Structure formats: structure tokens, C-alpha cells
Amino acid sequence: MNELNKIEGADAAAQPVNLVALLAETVSVQAFGTLAVLVVATLAPEIARDLGVPTVIVGYQIALVYFAGMIASLGAGWAVGTFGASRTGQLCMLIAGLGCVVASLGSLSLLIIGSFLIGIGYGLINPAASELLIRHSPANRRSMIFSIKQAGVPLGGMIAGLGGPPLALAFGWRSAFLVTAGACVATAVAAQPGRAHLDRDRGTRGGARAPAFSAMRVVLADPALRWLSLSSFCFAGVQLCVVSFLVALLVEELHVDLVLAGAILAVVQVVAGLSRIFWGYVSDLLRDGLGVLVFLALVMIVSAALVMLFGPTLPLAAVVVVFLTLGTSAVGWNGVLLAEVARLSPAQAVSAVTGAAMFFTYTGVVLAPPLFALLHQHSGSYVRSYWLLVALAIGALALVSAVRFRRAP
Length: 409
Description:
By secondary structure, this protein is an all-alpha fold. It contains 20 helices and no strands. Helix 2 (19-42) runs antiparallel to helix 7, helix 16 packs antiparallel against helix 18 (334-344) and helix 16 runs antiparallel to helix 20 (387-407).
């Protein structure tokens, strides 16, 4: 019987992984995890009106979500090593779904609790997916494959922008949370058939169970990983400020109606999602992911500066063009950066090191939106507060350049 089990285990291990199915699973987890995160941002005016709080409070809610994600990311290596990467993805969906249900119950305190749960689920997504993709993607296409997975972020934003406002106007904002919860649970169930095969080496990859602070020491000790991780702090801060406050900026400052503002957010997310795949392809083609990140930081600086020139008389078409350009950079960087982190990580500790690197990413998200909200409260203008995004983009440019040109031959 033991010999039979060994033979069956060897056969299972020999079976190749269907990369298309794996991408479908990881993209879906990323998309619906992002949808759960962005429901509040998309419906901020409606939720704020019902709960009797200022719309700009969304900045603090996003910070809470990512603070929870920051905590969870440090335990990602343990979770992947203990449960398996695919099972961890399922747990992400179930935790995020529970958070959506709690947030839908209709009070500010429950919205806070639900947001924290959503963040816990979201914080485990990238390390688990990186562990799967680094093992099963060809090296010469790795940046593009990671970017395809990361296209789930703007896909989730598109679903939030197109689906959230109509649902809120027709059935109330709570319905959007409940629909999102259902989508998360369905995604977890859909991943079950292939879970055993994907997690067949669970617990055998010693580095995956490395303690959180061991992985953090690896990141801090390696100059390339250290500066790259710190650059993700800046990149993520810009991204979340753009996505979180776009609808509020359009509605409250440029006088666009809520449904149209949600549609604009959706279009920006679609273009940004396609750009992620494009930048991943370019990165693989040039074999220079760091160079691509330098270029994206430059685009980010210019387009964020242009937003500071916005006013009510500016044609809506011009506003959309600038935000589309900003979206291709502010939302387009993730897959390339995660592929670079995975490439630089020790082979047996990709999920743990990715989780440690994501700690810096989530720190940027935790700090930047509330700081943006404070600037808005002080200046009374979303547009004038964009100088923060310009400063963050300049920081990202400096940090990635330090890695890129230090490693250049």
C-alpha cells in the first residue's frame, strides 16, 4: 500500500500544470479580492450619505484595509507552507467574502470590522499567487505572466466601477457588498478541483515556512530587494490615491454624476489592466523589468502633475485622457515589480520574501490615502492635493533607478 501511494504521488507530481487554468484561478482571486477592497471607494458618496460621515473618509477606510493586509502579508510564507498556495487563495476569498457580509450590515463600526477582514484576505493573495506562478511559468515569459495575473486588480476595479453604482442606486449600497461576497465564495469553490494537484508539495518547500522576520531580514540585507521593496511603497501610494479618490474627485470637484464617474473609473481600470500585460510583455522582450519601472515612474510624475491643472471648465475628454495615461503607469507597474522580486528571491522562499516585500507596498497604501485625505481637508481640493502623488512618483523613480543603474553592466 505504501509503494502504491508512492507511485500515485509520483504520477501526480509528474502531471503538468495547466498554465491557462492556473492563470484563470489567480486572476479571479486577484479580481474579486480587489473588488472587495474597492467597493467602498466606488460607492463612497452613497455610503457616506447613509452613514452620516464625510466622503473623504474613504481614505481612512482604504488605509485600514491595507493595514490588515500589511499584517497578513508577514504571515504569508507560513500560510502557504502550511496550507498550500492554492488553498491559501481559497482562504483569501472566504475571508474577504465574510468581510463583505459584515460590512453590509449597515453601521460604521461593522464597516470597520468588515474592512479589516477584507484586508486580511487581500494581504495573502500576492504571496500565494507568486509561489504558484514562479514554479509553473517559463522564465522568458515570467514578467508577462505575473502581469496577466496582476491585471486582475484593474479588472476588479472595472467590475466595481460598472457594477457598484447601478446596484447601489437600484437596491442600496449594501447589495453591492453582498454580490461581492457571493463572487468571492464562488471563486473559492471553483478553485477546489485543481487544488490538490497545485498543493501537492505543500510543506516540502522549507523556505515557504520561514518566519516572517527571517524573510524581512533577507529583503533588508539585499540592496536590490530593499530598494525595490521601498519603491513599491511609493508606487502603491500613488495607485491607491488615484483609484480611491477618482470618483470623489469627479463627482465633488468636476461635477460629474455618480454613474458616469463610475464608468470613467471602469474605463481607466480596463486600460490599466491591458497596460499591465503590455508592460509585462515589454519587460520580457527587453529583458529589463527595472528599465520599464523607471519609465513608468516618469510617466506617473508627468500625468499626476497635469491633474493639478484640472478645473471645472476643462473638457471631460481631456480629464479622461490624463487619467487614462496616469492609469497605465500608476496601475501598470505591479506585475513587473512582483516578477522582479520573485526573480531576486531565494528559490525556496518566494512566497515569504514576496510577503515581506509586500509589507512595504501595503505600508505605502496605509499611509498615502489618509495623508491625501488630510491634505484635502486642509486645502479643500482633491486636485491641489495631487502634489503628494508627484512627490511619491519622484521617490519611486529615485529608488528604482538606484537598483537599475547599480545592476547595469
